[in-house]
Amino acid sequence: MTSRVIPVAPFVLVVFGATGDLARRKLLPALFHRDIDGQIPDEATVIGVSRGPFTEEQYIALAKTAINEHVAAGDITEENLAKFLGRLHYLSADADRDGGWDELKAALQPYQDRITVFYLATGPELFGPICERIKKFGLDGENARVVVEKPIGKTLESARKVNDAVGAVFPEDRVYRIDHYLGKEAVQNLMALRFANGLFEPLWNAAHIDHVQITVAESLGVEGRAGYYDTAGALRDMVQNHILQLVCLVAMEPPALLDADAVRDEKLKVLRALKPISDALSTHTVVRGQYRAGASSGGAVPGYLEELGADTSTTETFVAIKAEILNWRWAGVPFFLRTGKRLAERVSEIVIAFRPIPHSVFDGAAGPIAANRLVIRLQPDEGVKLWLMTKDPGPGGMRLREVPLDMSFADAFGTRNPDAYERLVLDVVRGNQTLFMRRDEVEAAWTWIDPILTAWTNSDERPKPYTAGTWGPSAAIALIERDGRTWLDGGT
Ligand code: BG6
Fold this sequence. Notes:
This protein is an alpha/beta fold. It has 2 domains: 11-149, Rossmann fold (3-Layer(aba) Sandwich); 182-417 and 443-491, 2-Layer Sandwich (Dihydrodipicolinate Reductase, domain 2). Helices cover 34% and strands 21% of the residues. The protein has helices spanning 21-36, 56-70, 78-85, 101-108, 127-136, 156-167, 185-195, 226-232, 234-251, 260-273, 304-308, 409-413, 420-430, 439-457, 474-481, and strands at 11-16, 45-50, 88-92, 115-120, 144-148, 175-178, 209-217, 286-292, 294-296, 299-301, 318-323, 335-340, 347-354, 373-379, 383-391, 400-408, 436-437, 464-467. The longest helix is centred in the C-terminal third of the chain and has 19 residues, at 439-457. The site of 6-O-phosphono-beta-D-glucopyranose has 2 residues, from loops.
């Protein structure tokens, strides 16, 4: 059980792409968890839609398998599963033709007064056609809202087209662009940490912070998603959205209130203040890599090309960037960003590295004095650590030691950490857009990313190889060390 549960209003959720990976791995388990926690009212209904010619019974069987695979066995009982499955319906409809839409319209008829959420768990090429039909069949009434998943486009231009197509049907205040990192518990805690404590804000600037590191490292490879991934790469898949959103939350000015537009206005300012990267081919600024065969979790693993089943590909599975924010608060404070597949461990962390003390009163025997750092751990083991220098206990001379003030959320609160989708799906029902990306944010992020992509496309250089199970290409280590800093590899 999570700690406090406030039920939402009755809703109908229409999931396009209802048999796909996202629906099975994330949406159905998330809804199930909210249901067993008592947050979903009895009248709420879910209609799965896909092209496949499933019967309702077959769809419910698929959903049952998905829940059994992706929810801890201890959370499932025959009774709660039956109750949840009883909410599900299925319809076959085409995204880009009219087949099945009359049936969908008829199925929604009884729910006209309810909040209706159209969740597009499909590729972005279908967002426009689906929205067009939502309008054509008169399903875009005031209670309707739409949720779209990343990737929103592949470049600034294509992102604009997707946004135009969705925006032609739904006004911005009814469009919910998901970035699931914003739904992560520890990411929201970053806002609590910054804005509910007086301690940090006076220090949160270039006068006191030396640099920031953001690492989102995965130990898995591309798994069954090589087809999609090869058209995306780490920069589009992780940096354009998740990592830049983390940069925004670290760097933004305090909003006047926790209102969706107040928060998003501040994030937008950060994105617009990012220094354009004009030298993306210089390894002083950007390093891209691709994994070769190696070892992970003790076992041999294939390289990216083997997983892809291709002889060649220039898609990056790793990227490290030295980013800079050109404003008063952050001028001169580098933000080192990195993400990759098949790295040494799965760990996502934000490290705020403070400046060293200006003068030491201790003699050499006290040992080195490390600068303070605040580490926000997003996963696994969500929590916050503040590294401080203390006296090594015991008699004798003054020796100093670095020790963390360590708060693990699991220990502090003893509750299950809900998956990001649990919060985000219900935020859509609540009509709260704070944790969703506004159109101008998405486009500002692409504006920064586009020149890097263009430089790569126009160059013959290939991503630098790295062995699976390591921390990426050595050039990524040089990128930060050249600046006199060091990646804090998971050992923070
Ligand atoms: C997704 C990416 O958005 O985020 C995946 O498409 C990546 O490639 C995933 O694995 C990481 O999410 P999480 O929540 O496991 O950190």
